[in-house]
Amino acid sequence: MGREGSSGSSVSESVVKKVLLSYLYVVIWIFLSFTVIVYNKYILDPKMYNWPFPISLTMIHMAFCSSLAVLLVRVLRLVELPTSPAMTRDLYVSSVVPIGALYALSLWFSNSAYIYLSVSFIQMLKALMPVAVYSISILFNKETFRTNTMANMLSISIGVAIAAYGEARFNSWGVFLQLGAVAFEATRLVLIQVLLSSKGITLNPITTLYYVSPCCLVFLALPWVLVELPALRAASSFHFDFIIFGTNSFCAFALNLAVFLLVGKTSALTMNVAGVVKDWLLIAFSWSVIRDTITTINLVGYGIAFLGVGYYNHLKLQGLKAKEAQKKSAPNDEEARNLIDEKNTEGMGRKNDSQA
């Protein structure tokens, strides 16, 4: 009895430990994601730090992340690269380069939107990500068209449209940039499935940065030379602030590590649910601290979109549970088939004996 009691308590302790660790990973991810968004807004917003060069900021992030990824992979060898299949030059050009180009465009556009839109409204527009991912997945034949799912996507879109209608600081160019960022990011996520996952290649956030960041840096160089370099040369009074940009870049890199922890130790669905919590926190912070104007129509529209996203996550969870149930039942089905085969064989043997 004593042993059973001790084993039961140890099991409950391990469960509690796992739950607490999961919550810790969620809190770390929310904190870092929250920090990166607010920090980028602070740097880029003309009313705050007033450094409106989103391409330059993105290139600083990519250079920093590339350097640390190379350090972790090549120098310290703390992270291993995929070996089966190995990343060949042809595979890199055909798969990683398109993903890197889309990642560059997504980061460029999303950082640019902070100049024109409030943090709260940007988070509301980001609610369209499931809509974009589902629509693009249908185009690439990664998802099948379902009427109920499309109706759910339509409800999210209507909610975001209502939120946009009620936005006090509506800026058409800013909305275009953020919607473009959502479209590029959704296409990138689908292409990761099409170009990498289908070939058996799985990349964690560190190896993703190792392969994608240098490529992203190259793609950003051309628009940077044409758009921002002349303006930076004209701003002769600017001095590179190593503390501001160093800590900002470190937060961006730490966020990738947090994604690795959260998805690796829990699931991608957990990150989606945590993302909804983070969005509400950002909206509250934007209203209370940054003093952005949030209207009742904003909240009603985002509330509708929020319910749609919540239902989408619920469907995803049900799908995951169904897959797990199939995996668990598969061995039982195999055992049942083996027993039936054995009985049939035994019956045939007895029948042959009686005939003999």
Automatic annotation (TrEMBL):
Pfam families: TPT. Residues 24-313 form the Sugar phosphate transporter domain. Residues 324-356 are annotated as: Disordered. Its main location: membrane. It is a multi-pass membrane protein. It comes from the Eukaryota. The chain crosses the membrane at residues 20-39, 59-79, 91-109, 115-137, 149-166, 172-196, 208-226, 238-262, 269-290, 296-313. GO terms for cellular component: membrane. The keyword Thylakoid does not apply. It is found in: Membrane. Keywords: Membrane, Transmembrane, Transmembrane helix. This is Putative sugar phosphate/phosphate translocator. It comes from Apostasia shenzhenica.
